[in-house]
């Protein structure tokens, strides 16, 4: 049994905790997979590195209304893929080497294996190479074990080949057709990538809209646009999956009880991610869970003294900027347990890097209504501002919700070019309590730049 001052499980945002202030601590890091976690290796970063060339490919094939006749000749898949992972893989291995061997980390032991609780602040680590499990105890433990893709039993139990976001970015050949089961973030982003690269894409949704957790106006607009680009099947229930000569077939039932089948070369499952709390045997460590997540208070503390959790394993937001924020909170609270800081989840923004891009922060109109809040809304089309004319945009808009009495913004929802960038001043205004009139008229807005779409939306809010 080896004892540590601190054990960190998971090297995504968990790996960002350690700095020189921990130099006197005896620390262990346990990682069962690729060093660096989801965002770096199979999540945010490689997906966006695929989205960028996809955006270029799509711009070429949609440039004709601007008077530019261009032709997309070829996607050199191997080059696209290898540029991305040629950049990412060395970062993962370099990060691992740094923790394992650099003098800065003389106090750190890296375990390549799976940790699970066997008692309070007591862990067993099963080495990835099948070696003898080792027991560790620690005064403090950080659970940063992330989440993993959910695979419906009907797919997992069938004799079919399928991909998840963990595997699909490394495939050897660009498929001619792709079926995506699911209609959230991952479905929207990969549908854009594969269709921009020339594949026929079918998206299968259980509900009546894609991205249905978004503001209804955004979700409705996105679903309409998606249906023009992809074969979108809403309100379908999966009833089976089978291998056929042409690829993989999904058997579906429609809302009006008809049977239908979709066959494609590649099947991508994107129906959500489940926290890895179960892999940790959290209950054996006395750690409470809620809906499969590790339960934490505002200080990221679990039900066991000295044990903290952060990121996808405990958060209702499965987002990297949230995991990183929570890691900073955990770092402070490890160093200053008597003067802890709380996580700030008031205005968590999110963006979907599909086409058109989507970004949002704060309440949706549905949420404002269900909370019975008094609010006003304003919507400004990109097409009504000068930069929108330049782009000939006809589909993007900014929608704002505000408290009519105080002028404080309650929510912002954008669908359109560069939405994740255009939204940032609104996140800032909400985070620092800047009211809409002050934001609109208390600063210059560069003319004729894209953020004028935000300025005009702010000016349209009919406040008291
Ligand atoms: C395809 C995709 C695209 C995404 N794009 C974005 C985006 O654009 N923006 C954004 O904000 N978010 C995005 N996300 C979400 C983001 O990647 C996650 O929210 C974030 O990576 C979570 O970080 P984490 O540190 O909690 O977990 P992770 O980074 O998943 O790290 C957890 C680590 O723990 C290890 N582990 C698990 N169990 C054990 C165990 N028992 N013992 C030892 N090790 C263990 C795992 O191997 C893993 O390396 C995306 C996710 C996916 C899948
Ligand atoms: N840009 C980003 O920030 C980004 C990108 C990708 C992933 N992520 C994170 O990763 C998480 C997981 O992404 P995701 O797209 O897998 O999940 P998601 O929760 O965004 O969407 C899953 C969708 O699949 C649907 N679904 C569930 N079971 C189904 C079934 N049997 N048949 C058909 N549809 C079904 C759900 O109704 C839901 O709409 C996201 O919630 C997000 O937090 C973020």
Automatic annotation (TrEMBL):
Its cofactor is FAD. Residues 348-457 form the Pyridine nucleotide-disulphide oxidoreductase dimerisation domain. It comes from the Bacteria. Residues 4-327 form the FAD/NAD(P)-binding domain. InterPro entries: Class-I_Pyr_Nuc-Dis_Oxidored, FAD/NAD-bd_sf, FAD/NAD-binding_dom, FAD/NAD-linked_Rdtase_dimer_sf, Mycothione_reductase, Pyr_nuc-diS_OxRdtase, Pyr_nucl-diS_OxRdtase_dimer, Pyr_OxRdtase_I_AS. Its EC number is 1.8.1.15. The keyword 4Fe-4S does not apply. SUPFAM superfamilies: FAD/NAD(P)-binding domain (SSF51905), FAD/NAD-linked reductases, dimerisation (C-terminal) domain (SSF55424). It holds the Pfam family Pyr_redox_2. The keyword Oxidoreductase applies. Keywords: Disulfide bond, FAD, Flavoprotein, NAD, Oxidoreductase, Redox-active center. GO terms for molecular function: mycothione reductase [NAD(P)H] activity. Belongs to the class-I pyridine nucleotide-disulfide oxidoreductase family. PANTHER family: DIHYDROLIPOYL DEHYDROGENASE, DISULFIDE OXIDOREDUCTASE. NCBIfam families: mycothione_red, PRK07846.1. This is Mycothione reductase. It comes from Haloechinothrix salitolerans.
């Amino acid at each position: 049994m080896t004892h540590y001052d601190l054990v960190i499980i998971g090297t995504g945002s968990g790996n960002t905790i350690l700095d020189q202030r921990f130099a006197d601590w005896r620390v262990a890091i346990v990682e069962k997979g690729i060093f660096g976690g989801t965002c770096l290796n199979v999540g945010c970063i490689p997906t966006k590195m695929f989205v960028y060339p996809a955006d270029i490919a799509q711009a070429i094939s949609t440039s004709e209304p601007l008077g530019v006749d261009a032709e997309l000749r070829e996607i050199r898949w191997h080059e696209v893929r290898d540029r991305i992972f040629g950049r990412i893989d060395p970062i993962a291995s370099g990060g691992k080497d740094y923790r394992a061997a650099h003098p800065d980390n003389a106090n750190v032991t890296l375990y390549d294996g799976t940790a699970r609780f066997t008692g309070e602040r007591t862990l067993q680590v099963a080495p990835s190479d099948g070696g003898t499990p080792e027991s560790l105890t620690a005064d403090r433990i950080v659970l940063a074990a992330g989440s993993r893709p959910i695979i419906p039993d009907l797919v997992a139990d069938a004799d079919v080949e399928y991909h998840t976001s963990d595997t699909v970015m490394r495939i050897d050949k660009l498929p001619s057709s792709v079926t995506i089961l699911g209609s959230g973030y991952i479905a929207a982003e990969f549908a854009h990538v594969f269709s921009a690269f020339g594949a026929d894409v079918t998206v299968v949704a259980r509900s009546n809209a894609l991205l249905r957790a978004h503001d209804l106006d955004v979700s409705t607009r996105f679903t309409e646009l998606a249906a023009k680009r992809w074969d979108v099947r809403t309100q379908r229930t999966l009833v089976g999956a089978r291998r056929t000569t042409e690829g993989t077939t999904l058997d579906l039932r429609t809302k009006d009880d008809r049977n239908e089948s979709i066959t494609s070369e590649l099947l991508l499952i994107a129906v959500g991610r489940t926290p890895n709390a179960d892999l940790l045997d959290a209950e054996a460590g006395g750690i409470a869970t809620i809906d499969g997540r590790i339960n934490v208070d505002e200080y990221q503390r679990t039900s066991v003294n000295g044990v903290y959790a952060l990121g996808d394993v405990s958060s209702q937001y499965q987002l990297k900027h949230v995991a990183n924020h929570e890691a900073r909170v955990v770092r402070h609270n490890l160093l200053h347990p008597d003067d802890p800081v709380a996580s700030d989840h008031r205005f968590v923004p999110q963006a979907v890097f599909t086409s058109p891009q989507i970004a949002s922060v704060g309440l949706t109109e549905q949420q404002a209504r269900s909370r019975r809040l008094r609010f006003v809304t304003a919507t400004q089309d990109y097409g009504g501002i000068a930069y929108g004319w330049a782009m000939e945009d006809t589909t993007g808009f900014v929608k704002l919700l505000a408290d009519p009495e105080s002028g404080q913004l309650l929510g912002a929802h954008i669908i359109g070019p560069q939405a994740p960038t255009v939204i940032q001043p609104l996140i800032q205004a909400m985070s620092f309590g800047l009211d809409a009139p002050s934001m609109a008229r208390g600063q210059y807005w560069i003319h004729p730049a894209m953020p004028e779409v935000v300025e005009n939306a702010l000016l349209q809010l009919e406040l008291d």
